[in-house]
Task: structure prediction
Amino acid sequence: MMTEQTKNIIKATVPVLAEHGKEIVTRFYQNMLQAHPELKNVFNMAHQQKGQQQEALARAVYAYAANIDDPLSLNALLENIANKHTSLGVQPDQYPIVGEHLLGAIKEVLGDAATDDILNAWGEAYGQLAGVLMGMEHELYRVSAAAPGGWNGWRTFIVREKNPESDVITSFVMEPEDGLPVASFEPGQYTSVAVQVPELGVQQIRQYSLSDAPNGSTYRISVKREEGSDNQPPGYVSNLLHNHVNVGDSIKLAPPYGNFYINVNATNPVVLISGGVGLTPMISMLKRVLQSPEQRPLVFVHGARNGKVQAMKHKLRQTAADHQNFRLIMFYNEPLESDIEGQDYDFAGFVDINQIADKVLLPDADYYICGPVPFMRLQHDALMNHGVPETHIHYEVFGPDLFAE
Result:
């Protein structure tokens, strides 16, 4: 247990973290990756270049310090991190490396202000946090390996299908090279893909939602090609998958993980809300719910730029026509002349819960949201403003974490 003295010291450093957090974690990453270049095979180097990983870790450290009296309030965050870590293959012997360089960065940036008491307090706090995460990850690894068709680490799969879903999204159907079954998964979970990126000279790992219902023999992911812009480079892994990975090629996958998934045993209504490539976990949820004999009321709200970039649009329309309990609502914020309102899309503009409140505010419904963070925040707040309880709103964030994407 952490002593009260340690807690008090941690709380006293909260203003310092708010002021110097980004500088501390930037120094931390620089020093650690220089001393341990092998970790470049684990960290997302694109997020390193853009500073996203540094910002995410700074926020996480700040949240930890600010909630040191009530660590249970961070359980959801820690569960998310533990799932990301296991999908990346993070091991216990990597935690001391992180701790050493995090404390070293605090000392470098704060100088004499980082007294022995402060460093000892943060060492104790980090040790407790690491212990919690390692315990969670040990259990996740155990469950994954024990499941029928399960495994730990990386497993070689063969690409059996490569199907363009839109101008920017392509699906890959993959079967294990050994011909054995694959573990089932909860609709909404993801797998990690590990590939060598020639431009970087290192392995890179990315997490992609599984975009089909479990079938015991294959996994499907649907990947958006990230073109890049003046402010950020193109997606190393997404472009490699689109341009160079073809049917018959091998690829390494981790077991399914993730704590964002639908409760398939419930019977209450389900409302899925997604933007852009955020529809991928929703497709898995949708297919699994429609397989249930319960005939749960199901609404799928999706926002895309236009018909060229919307993935699986014809399949979704056909699914809506085939199932009386399923309603599809499409928003296009930049519809093309070829896009027909009432046929290809239902509303012009961005997804607006207020505009469709009569269609999505269902009694006792659970709401699942996936997409860019500003999009999810907007939908979350709109639902809250309409009186939807926080406990009925679920969302997924794919973004930089301590080791994660």
